[in-house]
Design a protein that fits this description.
The protein is mostly helical and 357 residues long. The chain has helices at 20-32, 37-57, 68-77, 83-102, 111-116, 120-129, 138-144, 151-161, 170-173, 204-215, 246-250, 266-280, 290-309, 317-328, 332-351, and strands at residues 180-181, 186-190, 197-201, 218-220, 232-234. It folds into three domains: 12-129; 133-148 and 281-357, no CATH class; 151-274, no CATH class. The protein starts with 19 loop residues before the first helix and ends in a 6-residue tail after the last helix. InterPro entries: DNA_brk_join_enz, MrpR_N_CB.
């Protein structure tokens, strides 16, 4: 009987304890506001995330003592994907600050409240963060992919982040089932751009996803939500890790639906990735692509390297460039182009590192 493996987020931000004032505020919401349990849970989650980002900005001060610039940084670290999302967190901070005024914890004429109430406050944050919305952190990705019913869809979202891609997705479409070692939980493949043999040591969740992809017999259309007679389609078993479905091949008359050496087309891989991310996952879906997921993966690797070898501090540009050159073969000039992303998003990625086994 297959041993069931389950994934649990190890992200430390979920274990950040609320400080006494936020606990008091939460108690106030629960006991004195006419809120449904769903709304209360939503506000509670907002408070935990605010508290988490608050500790990134300052270890010694709380948000009620922050400047406008520091509150702006808190919201930027959350990487809100829309004005509505950013506005919801701004409103929670604003309501909390007003609570602190009533309780006498902060001055009643505090200018911060006036500033963050300005109409363009949220718009300015969204404008500044929009260029970074295409990047996804480890915690974001690994938690979101659990929403996908098909293991092959989950795997497709994870592999670029684990630096398996290649020009025109050749490294993905060419992966064979025999490339994966179940006992050692390793994926060994030839990188088409360099001819170099790569060996990916898989964490338990990734290994489980690969094994379930290999074993799958049926693909559930529309992520299992389809009610039509084509709600599921038989998978054509091939030598490859990513396999076409009988339904997909039936729409291609020149393809016989029994070709056991049939690769999925890179265009279909791309289409499936974008459809899954936009339709089912909360991953800033209008922005995340296979390319940006791959870039997110090497930014994440650089952040992990910084945690392990630089005491959790950022690398300088030269060390960052050397690291990327060694890890993914980028030239120094090519690596420099990503340093600003690494520098700007370092705390966000650092806070979302999972260190999965």
């Amino acid at each position: 009987m297959e041993k069931k493996r389950e994934f649990y987020s190890l992200n430390k931000k979920y274990f950040v304890e609320l400080d006494s004032r936020k606990k008091e505020y939460l108690k106030f919401l629960k006991e004195e506001q006419d809120l449904s349990n769903i709304t209360l849970d939503s506000y509670k989650n907002q408070l935990y995330k605010i508290r988490s980002m608050e500790t990134v900005v300052s270890k010694n001060r709380n948000i009620e003592n922050f400047t406008v610039d520091e509150i702006t940084t808190v919201l930027e670290l959350m990487q809100p994907s829309s004005k509505e999302s950013c506005g919801a967190y701004r409103n929670r901070i604003l309501d909390y600050l007003k609570f602190c005024v009533v309780k006498g914890y902060i001055n009643s004429n505090i200018l911060v409240i006036e500033d963050i109430m300005q109409k363009d406050f949220v718009e300015n944050i969204i404008s500044k963060t929009k260029q970074y919305l295409k990047y996804v952190t480890e915690e974001q990705l690994y938690e979101e992919v659990e929403k996908l019913v098909n293991p092959s869809d989950r795997l497709l979202m994870l592999l670029p982040f684990e630096l398996v891609k290649g020009t025109d997705l050749e490294d993905i479409v060419s992966l064979r089932k025999e490339d994966y070692d179940r006992e050692k939980k390793t994926l060994t493949y030839v990188e088409h751009d360099t001819g170099e043999v790569k060996k990916l040591k898989c964490n338990d969740f990734l290994a489980d996803t690969i094994e379930k992809t290999i074993d799958a017999e049926v693909y559930y259309n529309l992520n299992g939500e389809s009610k039509s007679r084509n709600s599921e389609s038989e998978i054509i078993k091939t030598i490859y890790l990513f396999e076409p479905t009988k339904l997909a091949l039936s729409k291609m008359p020149e393809k016989a639906p029994d070709q056991t050496h049939e690769k999925m087309l890179a265009s279909n891989i791309q289409r499936r990735f974008l459809y899954s991310s936009k339709k089912y996952l909360a991953l800033n879906s209008q922005h995340v692509t296979l390319k940006s997921a791959y870039q997110s993966g090497f930014i994440n690797k650089a952040v992990k390297h910084s945690i392990k070898n630089y005491g959790g501090e950022k690398m300088n540009k030269s060390d960052f460039s050397d690291f990327l050159s060694q890890e993914i073969g980028l030239t120094k000039e090519g690596s420099y182009r990503y340093y600003n992303i690494y520098f700007k998003m370092f705390e966000k990625f650092k806070n979302d590192v999972l260190f999965l086994e």
